[in-house]
Amino acid sequence: MSGSERKILEVLNGRTVTPPPIWLMRQAGRYLPEYRKTRAEAGSFLDLCYTPDFAVEVTLQPIRRYGFDAAILFSDILVIPDALKRNVRFTEGHGPQMDPIDADGIRNLAADGFMAHLEPVIETVRRLRRELPGETTLLGFCGAPWTVATYMIAGHGTPDQAPARLFAYRDPEAFDHLLDLLADMSATYLVAQIDAGADAVQIFDSWAGVLGEEEFDRYCTRPMARIIASVKAQRPGARVIAFAKGAGLLLKDYRQKTGADAIGLDWTVPLSFAAELQKDGPVQGNLDPMRVVAGGRALEEGIDRILDKLGHGPLIFNLGHGITPQADPENVTALVRRVRGMKD
Ligand SMILES: Cc1c2[nH]c(c1CCC(=O)O)Cc1[nH]c(c(CCC(=O)O)c1C)Cc1[nH]c(c(CCC(=O)O)c1C)Cc1[nH]c(c(C)c1CCC(=O)O)C2
């Protein structure tokens, strides 16, 4: 099947597909018993990401179970700092950790061996394209420079990204340099994913919501635009979804400013505003992941509201953020069936 027939690519090209195609952020993960089994076999989380046999398997698990319209490469946004030699670790119960970086560290960041380090991820993409059903879109991804930088500065996740915000106010030049470098390495990485068989890519700016207007423009929108311009200059026709979580009203001209083909929306974006954004181009989202945990009426009402308000334009149905480990896999079955208009 040619790429143009894949439903998600049709939406990314601006067409309305009914019912809308669906995939879920973090669709491969701990809510699935088969993921937990492979994860235990793989050892550490990064071993899972860097071993194509395991990474291909967990990418395919939610496709087999639910027949989603897209598979998303199984990896993590923090493989980029890992490939920049920041010593990333995922320890049980602690979330991600790495060596925190300062202004000197930023000046000395070395990109040698970057793509060689990420070669197992690229091999995973190649194998996935061969193993996926022809109708399934393969999505590659990376983290946006701002979001990746927040982890690099603090050395771990924080609730409000205070360390990165403080660093950016104190040393904006060093911070700009870090974001430029991350943008350029991210573009290289995404182009390699596209060459290996990714149909489209998503760029996750999960921490966009902690910035004021000027900082959002400088630290989120501009680096996102830089990556997208670079990817599209190198691979004309590449399709990009930009997801700036928590950006709210700042999403108003985000698609035009970044050059993204579609924008991802979190669940706090009002559907009336989402419908305005959709007049300009495709949108993706935005069911509250807690509705999938709740199930029943809460799930059904949330789905119906999105289909009612956004289902008549170019929409990729998704959650407003990643599915959580507490979600019941049966509720995901119900979600997919309802979006596809299937009766129980
Ligand atoms: C901020 C961020 C990260 N990683 C990611 C983001 C952006 C999206 C978002 O905001 O959720 C993106 C990501 N992480 C993962 C994927 C795989 C593909 C998919 O969506 O199925 C993707 C696209 C796997 C993962 N990445 C991680 C897991 C869980 C690790 C495990 O299995 O032990 C998975 C399945 C670990 C991870 N990775 C990260 C954190 C903060 C954590 C720990 C929190 C947690 O445990 O959920 C960084």
From TrEMBL:
Substrate binds at residues 26-30, 76, 151, 206, 321. It comes from the Bacteria. One of its GO terms (molecular function) is uroporphyrinogen decarboxylase activity. Keywords: Cytoplasm, Decarboxylase, Lyase, Porphyrin biosynthesis. This is Uroporphyrinogen decarboxylase. The record marks 76 as: Transition state stabilizer. It catalyses: uroporphyrinogen III + 4 H(+) = coproporphyrinogen III + 4 CO2. CDD domains: URO-D. The keyword Magnesium does not apply. It is found in: Cytoplasm. One of its GO terms (biological process) is protoporphyrinogen IX biosynthetic process from glutamate. Belongs to the uroporphyrinogen decarboxylase family. HAMAP family: URO_D. The keyword Nuclease does not apply. Pfam families: URO-D. Its EC number is 4.1.1.37. It is an enzyme of class 4 (lyase). Catalyzes the decarboxylation of four acetate groups of uroporphyrinogen-III to yield coproporphyrinogen-III. Homodimer. GO terms for cellular component: cytosol.
